[in-house]
């Protein structure tokens, strides 16, 4: 199902076309016991535990509050600019508040591009290394340029 945002005329999905499997049919504890001491990127989990999107799409969600960077660009006071940039830096955590699933790992060379003409920015993400996993991104608008890489290094110790 799709929904149209009347203010911005952007079409977006409001629900998945197929219902999610019930995670209650799987014992997470039995899976986690076998994973103690392993690097999280090498742990095989049942697909039901994945969120139906790529990690590259998840990176682009960090731009949800990009208007804060626009405001920082327009701010005259350097303290106000710093506050707005700091608010943007932590705003990406807001989209993870109720998430319980991890996104799919991108394939080497996979790309994701999001263009938001209504807001005035675009972001391009690419999986640039598989072992170790490294994702790079570049976002720009008339008010800012933002680039970086995500190099997660996680282990599950069972503590």
UniProtKB/TrEMBL annotation:
One Gene Ontology cellular component: plasma membrane
UniProt record, GO biological process: lipid transport
Keyword Acetylation: no
Superkingdom per UniProt: Eukaryota
Family statement: Belongs to the OSBP family.
InterPro entries in the cross-refs: OSBP_sf, Oxysterol-bd, Oxysterol-bd_CS
GO molecular function ontology, one term from the record: sterol binding
Organism: Alectorobius mimon
Keywords on record: Lipid transport, Lipid-binding, Transport
Gene3D superfamilies reported in the protein's UniProt record: 2.40.160.120
Designated name of the protein: Oxysterol-binding protein
